[in-house]
Design goal:
Helix content is 38%, strand content 11%. With 274 residues, the chain is α/β, with parallel strands linked by helices. The strands form two sheets. Strands 1-2-3-4-5 form a five-stranded parallel sheet, with no helix packed on it. The protein has a five-stranded parallel sheet with strand order 6-7-8-9-10, with no helix packed on it. The chain is elongated and about 70 Å long.
Length: 274
Amino acid sequence: LQRLSLAGNSIGLDDASILADGFLSHCHCLVELNLSYAKLDGASLHKLVDCIGSLAHLEVLNLRNNAIGPEGAGLLSRQALPSLKRLRVLDLRMCKLGKDGATELAHTDAMLDSLEELELGDTQALRAFVAGLAGHSEADERRLIGPWLMRFKRAALDGTSDAGNSEIQPVAIGLRRVLGLEVLSLRNCNLSDMDVEALASSLYKLTRLKELDLTGCSMSAAAVQGLASALGALLDLEVLSLAGSKFGTEGAAALAQMAMPRLAQLREFRLLGC
């Protein structure tokens, strides 16, 4: 058996025990496992997690719309994902992971070696995941650049009215791990000078970036002066928005001197309200 779908079935504690001990433990060649919409919670997943971790050939794991929460994310991170060396696709949309659960996943080093698609379906969870990447040491950076980090093309990490600056710096630092990024949005993140400094250091590594949206980030003139050089390193950049940051003539002069002469591919530049 290579593909198994139990999508839509209600799997309680007893069902999970039977599924793990009486069935999945014998499916050594399983490549795809779909347990989406199965009403799994953290306790039910606890019964299944070791068995899932034993599926050495598993490439696709779909747990969409199961309320496993941070507890379930921790179980997967510690007891299953490190053993799934061939896992390419992990779908955890609508799983109520929250920030804590997403951070747990970011600390699963081995998962990053093979994963191509990670679906979290939640901007805040994705921000927490990217921020969690920043917790890895620089010595581990080469090992952490798995295929999914190169194929992860788009990141919408927009801010909200209740998002404090304390969240932004680790997100900005974590972005330097996502080397294949082509589209990045950080709209309404209210970036301080220190946030922009952290973002600039990551932009130097995001050489494939084509679109960068910093609309409504309230960047100061000093911040934009520091950012300009990093923007100039984005030679493939086609769309740039700095709208809503009142950086004035000082910021504009830095952009004109250090960024614009190098952005030969730029076709859209938004500066409304600057």
